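Shift notes (night). Ran Fatty acid desaturase domain-containing protein while the centrifuge was going.
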Amino acid sequence: MEYHIEHHIFPKVPCHNLKKLHKHLKNQFPMPYNGLVDAYKTIIPTIFKQAKDDSYFINIDLPSS
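Came back to this:
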């Protein structure tokens, strides 16, 4: 799904303008995972860790502004 993040951050932006919005915001987002399996390698262990420690979180590096 292209521009999925943009759609959720700015739900009132018409779909035909999401590409333009993406160009303005893309350097502010974390790098995406390389597919679903790559994402699950982070997400699934995190779920188990959070079940034991509700203060646990994933520290995602964001690009500097």
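The first helix runs from residue 4 to 9. Residues 4-52 form one domain.
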